[in-house]
Amino acid sequence: MSTRTWPQPPGDGLYRAGLKPAVITRDGLEGYRPGAPFDRIIATCGLRTIPSTWVEQVKPGGIIVAPWVRRSAARTPWCG
Question: What mean pLDDT do residues 48-53 have?
Answer without folding.
Answer: 90
